[in-house]
Specification:
Distance between the termini: 62 Å
Strand order of the largest sheet: 4-3-12
Oligomer: single chain
Strand content: 5-15%
Radius of gyration: 36 Å
Amino acid sequence: HLFKRPKRIQALQFINVVEMLLCFNEDPEQFFVDLKPLTIRHIKYGVKADYARAFGMTVLNGISQVLGDKFDERSKKAWGRLWTRVSSCVTRALNVGSNLVIVSLVQDDIDNFIEAMDCVPRGERFETLTKIDVNGEVVSPLDWSVMGGQATIAMWVIDDLCAIRADRNTYYYGRETMFETHPGLVAKICRQMPHLVDSLLNGLMWHASMVVDTRVRVNYYVRELYGVPAETVDTWTSTLGVLVQHGDPAIFNHPVVEMLLHMKWSRFGLILYLTIQVWYTIMLGLFTYGFAQLSDDCSTVATTIRQTVGGMSAVTLAVQTAVVGGQSHRGQFQASRLLGVKVKVPRFLANPWNSARFLSSMMLIVVTFSDECTFPAWGRRQGGAGMLVREEEELSWRTIMVAATSLFMWVQFMQVLVLSNAVAAFIYSVGRMARDVAINFTVIAVIVVAFGTCLNILRQPGGYADDIGSSMLNIVRVILGVGEPEQYHLDGWGLAALIIAIVMIAVCLINILVAQLVSSYGVLATNAEGFAKMNRAYICVEMESFLPMRYRLKCFDECGFDAPLEFDSSDEGPSGGIQVLCPSSIRTHPKYVPDRVIRFTGDASPMDPWPSNKVEDEEDAPNILKDEAPAVD
């Protein structure tokens, strides 16, 4: 039963079939263009070439019922001849797609798939696993299995492509073919089958079995993961950017990802990040001294310091605006939530730290150019010794903004501390738990407003009757235990309302929040190291996006990915990575696999299939039976 859809949809499909028949007669070229994807789709449905005859009879019968008396003998012959020509094309296309590999994919039969691949010549094996021509349309068994949810076949294909085999002539390693024919492979696997990422990464490294001078050779084949700069203009589409957006901290503990991160961090990430943070730290130091310590000082030194901060802020804002404008022009946006609403913003502003820097730069410019010493008309008069006269209980808008800017900038200073893995993990954990805190405090705020309004209406003593704002503030003070004595002495209904508010907030919601935070932090703490590395990877990808293409190409060329990597002295293997001499303790790592190269003796023709275990077992079976047979006297 291939057609399980409603009859209305089947009717539309019948109309499409008739239109396609007419297209064959009127525009054969367009017919064959449409036939390619149609054939691929029906091969996936398991449709066989034998079905064409029965389907044709059904189509012609339907046409005859629609045409009625007009479907005379002449029309019948014309439609029959047309269907014969069309069905022969369709049948040939379906037969092309009926090879053992395609059939195994359609049936999701891993055993038959492996058996089919065992017959493929070793020189064509990678091509067969990555692209099969079906009636002129290229189909990838890897794509087919990943997109179709065939996890077992997908894992086998990845493992086979990442296996390193060797005969007497050369090495065979399908890594390069796999990535070349599947751009964005890591992103696709992260979306469709994230559990296969680990298998993919396992196939991108090799460990030596021998220890030489307390060191073990380790090859990391990361050329494609590093990303050719010209092919990844947007760094967030690189492998590291994809993994950061995927958000699984455990994957950052994999040795391949660790090496990839180390390569980029040591080459440009660390130095660029430190340069930016030193700039911000100088701004913070000058701001604290000029706007806090010397806030009322109108001397030349104090004024110069404040103006310097304003100038640095203007430069910073100009650079940030240029980055945001460039990303907007290139269409580099990222979905973010703003007050619960999903909006697209430039990637630079999607980072909360960058948004905070952007806002603080604008605030610094405002407080600098509203300085009363530079512009006396803005505020207070000057007293003796170049000092401003501060009136009692004066709290201008500028003073509030300076205080808010100070708080804002010192909080941002925590970003410098992420150079420490422990601090980075802690800050990341706090950020992840902020959502629970925000939700809980929102509920608390609604309850405070509700009971504050209630006590104000009841005209309760102790300041509750003054206005709703005072009533809400009193409730907060009572809950925090810092209220005045008279704020506790309420009348009957008012006291009952206050007790209910205290129980709901202090006893229930606060304790629920504590329990949530403990639970969340327990989960986050188990992957603290992964979170720290993921945070560093985020920074690294962002720093790379600031680099000019010329410098990115220079860093890529310095990696030397084109040089073959040795398995042993004078034994050069595939290129596409870097070799590192690691301490011998790496042999205790769970990912350590000693010399995973599969070596074959005998004939080394590219047209010969690789010897399979099944064939060897079958060849050995008679000998085993002969050895086990009892002797006959």
